[in-house]
Amino acid sequence: MGGGARELGGFVAALAGWVSALAAAVLPQWRQSSYAGDAIITAVGLHEGLWMSCAAQSTGQVQCRLHDSLLSLDVHIQTSRALMVISLLLGFFGIIMSVVGMKCTKAGEEDPVTKSRIAVAGGVLFILSGLCSMSAVSLYATQVTYEFFRESTIPINARYEFGSSLFVGWGAASLSMLGGSLLCCSCPAKERRGQQYQRQSQPSMSREFV
């Protein structure tokens, strides 16, 4: 795969990961009601996310309520919130830098070495963004698992298990890190050696003509 095609593929994968991470952060399905055990399927399904909690009735009506207080939330929710916001910010700046640094764009064509370095910096930002998303989703999933299996008087059919947003978040983190890794392959070393060779060959050619 050529350098330009590799960069484009990495950018598309990283962009898809960033959009998926945004969807995962907004959607409220981070954990949902469990129907395990001797459960009687109720008419109401509960979903909770980083920003709101929702109740979906069997009639199709969904009612959501935003989390009123930030400080009253559990620590793992606050931490996951912060990590997802940092991930989205890093990914946003990674998009900008990758667009500027990719070979298929017109910006900065007069200095290909600097252009490649900008693409690598964008890839690093995407990798960091993916790591933040992975940490946020894994932390939340660990807490859900702990609350599900711990000894409690709450019946198993009234506990929570993984929601679809967690799986979207894991996929988003994987895409961001894969795309960032492909962008980081835009190493400017070859281009730097080529420029140095051209600079060394120009004086010798001028002396020959004299």
What features would you describe in this structure?
It is a single chain. The chain has 210 residues and is of the alpha+beta class. The chain has one domain (2-27, 69-189): Butyryl-CoA Dehydrogenase, subunit A, domain 3 (Up-down Bundle). The protein contains 5 helices and 5 strands, in the order H-E-E-E-E-H-H-E-H-H. It has helices at 3-26, 75-101, 112-149, 164-184, 189-209; strands spanning 31-33, 44-48, 52-57, 62-66, 160-162. A 5-stranded antiparallel beta sheet has the order 4-3-2-1-5. The two termini are 44 Å apart. Mean pLDDT is 80; it is low at 191-197 and 204-210.
Highlighted features:
single chain, 210 residues, alpha+beta, Butyryl-CoA Dehydrogenase, subunit A, domain 3, 5 helices, elongated, disordered C terminus
Topology record:
Layout: H1 3-26, E1 31-33, E2 44-48, E3 52-57, E4 62-66, H2 75-101, H3 112-149, E5 160-162, H4 164-184, H5 189-209
Helix pairs in contact: 1-2, 1-3, 1-4, 2-3, 3-4
What is the second-level CATH architecture? Up-down Bundle
Number of strands: 5
Largest sheet: 5 strands, antiparallel
CATH level-3 fold name:
Butyryl-CoA Dehydrogenase, subunit A, domain 3
Overall tally of domains: 1
Percentage of residues assigned to helices: 55-70%
What's the tally of helices? 5
Strand content: 5-15%
GO molecular function, one term: structural molecule activity
Transmembrane segments: 82-100, 120-142, 162-185
Family: Belongs to the claudin family.
Keywords: Cell junction, Cell membrane, Membrane, Tight junction, Transmembrane, Transmembrane helix
